């Protein structure tokens, strides 16, 4: 935290992360990574504004140990040397969204489940559309693996950053 006009204010650090799928925008709080989105994603400004308001935060472009660790872990992931991430996370969303994202974290590397199966794991067996909407609002791509959720008929389904990126990630994890 830092003082800003007599008011304690939090700081959100931001940086750019390099991946084989393109540049990503990352944001972190003291507690952990709160945003990782592809730069071509059109909602970055709105999501960053939401984070600023949620944490009463000032946004500062910077590099820090968490971002260095994130870059290292993502490099290892894309090089087939990492299946699980150890980055601390700060999930920012409604209680239902956070529950959906925590369920995503339980999907093993290289596996997929359907939106219906995810809803069942969350004890909301008929909420597969709400689960799909929550997954679409996931602000931590790749690390919170919404790309591992497909339609019940085994079709890929959507992906907020584009189905070509989802296909790439699923193929990467199959090898």
Automatic annotation (TrEMBL):
Residues 13-91 form the Methylguanine DNA methyltransferase ribonuclease-like domain. InterPro entries: MethylDNA_cys_MeTrfase_AS, MethylDNA_cys_MeTrfase_DNA-bd, MethylDNA_cys_MeTrfase_DNAb, MethylG_MeTrfase_N, MGMT_N_sf, WH-like_DNA-bd_sf. SUPFAM superfamilies: Methylated DNA-protein cysteine methyltransferase domain, Methylated DNA-protein cysteine methyltransferase, C-terminal domain. Transmembrane segments: none annotated. It is an enzyme of class 2 (transferase). Belongs to the MGMT family. This is methylated-DNA--[protein]-cysteine S-methyltransferase. It comes from Candidatus Marinarcus aquaticus.
């Amino acid at each position: 935290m830092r003082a800003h006009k007599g008011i304690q204010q939090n700081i959100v650090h931001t940086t750019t992360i390099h991946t084989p799928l393109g540049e990503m925008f990352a944001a972190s709080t003291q507690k952990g990574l709160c945003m990782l989105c592809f730069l071509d994603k059109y909602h970055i400004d709105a999501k960053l504004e939401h984070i600023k308001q949620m944490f009463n935060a000032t946004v500062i472009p910077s590099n820090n140990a968490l971002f260095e660790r994130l870059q290292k872990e993502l490099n290892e992931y894309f090089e087939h040397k990492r299946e699980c991430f150890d980055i601390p996370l700060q999930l920012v969303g409604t209680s239902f969204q956070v529950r959906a994202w925590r369920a995503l974290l339980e999907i093993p590397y290289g596996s997929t489940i359907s939106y219906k199966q995810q809803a069942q794991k969350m004890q909301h067996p008929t909420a597969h559309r709400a689960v799909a909407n929550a997954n679409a609002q996931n602000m931590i791509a790749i690390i919170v693996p919404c790309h591992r959720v497909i339609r019940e008929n085994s079709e890929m389904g959507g992906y907020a950053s584009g189905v070509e990126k989802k296909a790439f990630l699923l193929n990467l994890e199959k090898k």
